[in-house]
Amino acid sequence: MPFRASGKGLNVAIRKDDSMQVKERIDQALGRALASAEAPGCPPRLAQAMRHAVFPGGARIRPQLCLAVSLACGDRHPRLADAAASAIELLHCASLVHDDLPCFDDATTRRGVPSVHAAYGERLAVLAGDALIVLAFQSLAIAATATPQLLVPLLVGIGRRVGMPLGIVAGQGWECEPAVSLAAYQRLKTGSLFAACTEAGALAAGADPGVWRAFGLSLGEAYQVADDIRDVVSTVETMGKAPGRDRALHRPSSAAELGLSGALAHFDRLIARAQNDIPRCDGAEALRALVSAEAERLLPAETVRSVAQAAA
Question: Dmax over Cα atoms in the chain, in whole Å?
Fold first, then answer.
């Protein structure tokens, strides 16, 4: 298959010396944000539920992407870039908490551990998701005190990619409608937050966010297609959550609409498009390596073989 490379995700897109630093930057920013919500006098179980939603994390692809773009653009304001990356990850975690609720997926596991509602109950899960959303914007605002001129565009840009009419909330909302375009659904449900990563990373470095939008949208849509495929051919051990939910919940799916072979071909087209959408910059080649490595991580050779066998 085209556009595949060996390696483990985003780390190949970041210089080896910076790889651990990026992970530390993300973990430290997330830790600072959560610590600010765990002040004495807070409801302790709600604080625990919030931390359970964020740690241990998954691949952290979204905050790593945000920092990779910031680095590619010069990383002019690293503290702000860290806060933007952390805010986007907090918003992503909040969306997973709500997505797992009985009224949506009714998922009892997430990232290989009990989902928040399974561990803490439905009421605390709703509140934890709400609190993480507020915390994301609060922590971003606090970090922007030294660069106030960038705060408004960051808040507006990230907010646009999360809410209505064209954010991840809208993407989830389309699951409640009688008919939806698959491409539009996937761009909103997953692609939109990836666009927030690329735009926010550029903004935090003082670069033009508009030229980075298409890259984020294409890569995010590819992620959703890969998730659709894995939902058919993977197991709970490899996914960290129960497979088969798209079919059970009658959700739009590339695997259902295009067939497994068609979905795999569509994934490759999106990966190619994402590579072509990377703007000219000093870090362009590293970002292309990022895309190739993520394609391999998302759909490794054994998954591709499973697709071929299932489609045969």
Answer: 59
Q: Which of 263, 248, 254, 250 is nearest to 307 (CA)?
A: 263
C-alpha span between 229 and 200 (Å, rounded): 29
Nearest to residue 8, comparing CAs of 266, 289, 254, 216? Answer: 289
Q: Which of 136, 294, 277 is nearest to 198 (CA)?
A: 277
CA 124 distance to own-chain centroid: 23
120-146: per-residue pLDDT in tens? Answer: 999 999 999 999 999 999 999 999 999
Query: Element (H or E) spanning 110, and its range?
Result: strand 109-110
Closest to 23 measured CA to CA, from 38, 6, 10, 8: 10
Can you name the CATH fold of 9-311? Farnesyl Diphosphate Synthase (1.10.600)
For 148-202, what is each residue's pLDDT tens digit? 999 999 999 999 999 999 999 999 999 899 988 998 999 999 999 999 999 999 9
Q: End-to-end CA distance of the chain, in Å? A: 17
Helix (H, G, I), strand (E, B) or coil at 159: helix
Half-sphere exposure of 50 toward its Cβ, with a 13 Å CA cutoff?
26
136 neighbors 94 (Cβ within 8 angstroms)? yes
CB 307 within 8 A of CB 37: no
Whether this prediction's pTM lies above 0.85 is answered by yes
Q: Where are the domains of the chain?
A: 9-311
Confidence of residue 312 (pLDDT cuts 50, 70, 90): low
Q: Which of 299, 182, 37 is nearest to 308 (CA)?
A: 299
Within 10 A of 210 (CB to CB), how many other CB atoms are there?
A: 10
- pLDDT tens-place string over residues 233-261: 887 767 777 788 888 888 899 999 999 99
What does DSSP say about strands 113-114 and 109-110: parallel, antiparallel, or unpaired?
antiparallel
